[in-house]
Amino acid sequence: MNCFFCKGSMKPSTTTHFVDLKKCMIIVKNVPCWECEHCGEILLDDEVVARLDSIIKKVSELVTEIAVVEYDTAA
Description:
Blueprint: E1 10-20, E2 25-36, E3 42-43, H1 46-62, E4 66-70
Parallel strand pairs: 2-4
Antiparallel strand pairs: 1-2, 2-3
């Protein structure tokens, strides 16, 4: 797989995803991604994005300020 921006090679990696929902800030650690070896651009697979949406929805219903959660591939 090649980077959309610089055409560099993409390698499997992890990233931290930040979401500001106005009522709360959610930080999801160790999110699986593809990272460009040349420019550092991050790409998320469709299934990872769907899982992130689910995590963010659940966490936003529970917290009012800030939450730091681990990406859980099993749930």
